[in-house]
Amino acid sequence: MKIKNICCIGAGYVGGPTMAVIAQKCPEINVTVVDINENRIAAWNDQDVENIPIYEPGLSKIVEEAKDRNLFFSTDVDAAIDKADMIFISVNTPTKTYGIGKGMAADLKYIELCARQIARVSTTDKIVVEKSTLPVRTAEALKNILDNTGNGVNFQILSNPEFLAEGTAVDDLLNPDRVLIGGDIDTDKGRDAVQALVDVYSHWVERDNILTTNVWSSELSKLTANAFLAQRVSSINAMSELCEKTGADVNEVAKAVGMDSRIGSKFLKSSVGFGGSCFQKDILNLVYIAKSFGLNEVADYWEQVIIMNDHQKRRFASNIVKTLFNTVSGKKIALLGWAFKKDTNDTRESAAIYVADYLLNEQAEIVVYDPKVKKEQVYADLDYLNSRSEKENRQRVSVVNDPYTCTKDSHAVAVMTEWDEFKELDWKKIYNEMLKPAFLFDGRRLLERDTKEEIGFEFYAIGS
Ligand SMILES: NC(=O)C1=CN([C@@H]2O[C@H](COP(=O)(O)OP(=O)(O)OC[C@H]3O[C@@H](n4cnc5c(N)ncnc54)[C@H](O)[C@@H]3O)[C@@H](O)[C@H]2O)C=CC1
Ligand SMILES: O=C(O)[C@H]1O[C@H](OP(=O)(O)OP(=O)(O)OC[C@H]2O[C@@H](n3ccc(=O)[nH]c3=O)[C@H](O)[C@@H]2O)[C@H](O)[C@@H](O)[C@@H]1O
Prior knowledge:
CATH topology of the largest domain: Rossmann fold
Helix content: 40-55%
Keywords: NAD, Oxidoreductase
Number of domains: 2
Pathway: Nucleotide-sugar biosynthesis; UDP-alpha-D-glucuronate biosynthesis; UDP-alpha-D-glucuronate from UDP-alpha-D-glucose: step 1/1
Number of helices: 19
CATH class of the largest domain: Alpha Beta
Largest sheet: 6 strands, parallel
Binding site for substrate: 162-166, 222-226, 262, 269-275, 340-341, 444
Radius of gyration: 24 Å
Binding site for NAD(+): 10-15, 35, 40, 91-95, 132-133, 166, 278-281, 348
Strand content: 5-15%
Pfam families: UDPG_MGDP_dh, UDPG_MGDP_dh_C, UDPG_MGDP_dh_N
Structural class: alpha/beta
Bound molecules: 1,4-dihydronicotinamide adenine dinucleotide, uridine-5'-diphosphate-glucuronic acid
């Protein structure tokens, strides 16, 4: 079957970029991205394409090309569902904050609401695609809801997890290592549905890079990929602590082990800890699933990746306190970067939030500069932790628009995000305007030690 109309529920970091690329590459398919968040949809529809709600290099150009041609953003979810032959569900699946599985399991309430809405509205057959990251066997629950509350139409369910990373979303979508499609390959209708989605991606992805599997393998592969990736970061971060004690340098160790082709060089960059909306959530979900099958050793193995990551964030913050003569009370600490990685305005689970919180608990004054993160977001992130009153967060944390205002008169500067522009700053000027001794903590291994020490900084970098 040929797909003519696609609907995507969820206009977030995945739904927005993914659908923009599908629309750009498949001009004959109408793509409508819907969301209940009116502000988000309004921002996608802003006349000035630079105001789209997600910052991703290259994205605004693609949106500009496809928008109002065959790419549409709307809050009319029912209408888009009704019209579509294929519906992607790309809503958030955060960690549960209540009830059974609190703090571990994925909260599937948004997914279930989508399924019920699709069932209620649909009057023609639909292919429903799980784009969100979901626990293995979620498709079974979706099918159950769709078949039992629907209008007798046929629903085929596919799993098509997304592997894009923020900051490189457009490139990842245009040149994916692989596209994974799980479907009911034992039935004709299931195979047809898989083929329909293969045909969409075949517009720009080599057929050999489009992998088809059964639904459960596809669902579990996504959790596995994120767990493996995060595990590499925790592994190198574990070594970074040992490097600091032994005189080894974690960059040299990473290079040496990464040149072994069985290990590979990517994703071995030591840091203040991984952030982002997914690694922690997906691993906790994996741990929960393993525990629910009684696989305690499997659960403990993966949980250690999170324990190590929490340790790394805490260790970085406590090292700042220790180095500043065991107290940061009343001292001004400048944080360069708040996003969880460079080239994104996303701050979810960013290490900077936890480091700031730790330092605030030690009564530090925090000043933040990030080229893409808005002031309100910084406060919202801190407020969410509930460590102190909202008023106090605003009294003790300031967010500024300029790196030199951020670092001026500070006791210490900490690089939290690896934004390229931080490498190019006038570090001599920063040094001159700081209190002495001028402490510089590099949580990203972004800066060169020699030049900074020459200027006069007391320089500390993760893993050396
Ligand atoms: N952020 C990322 O880089 C990646 C995320 N994922 C997965 O993709 C899924 C979505 O993630 P993000 O796009 O980051 O989330 P997001 O929070 O940016 O976007 C989700 C959107 O869904 C909307 N939504 C929720 N319920 C809705 C409903 N019933 N009807 C209409 N809209 C609804 C929300 O308003 C929100 O705008 C998650 O499962 C995540 O694990 C997968 C790969 C990469
Ligand atoms: O499911 C998801 O949400 C996505 O999660 C990650 O993508 P993302 O979180 O956007 O970004 P990453 O590049 O993976 O970085 C995650 C965190 O790890 C950190 N990191 C990454 C790599 C590294 O070597 N060292 C390191 O500290 C980053 O700074 C960042 O805080 C995966 O890379 C994507 O494949 C996946 O689709």
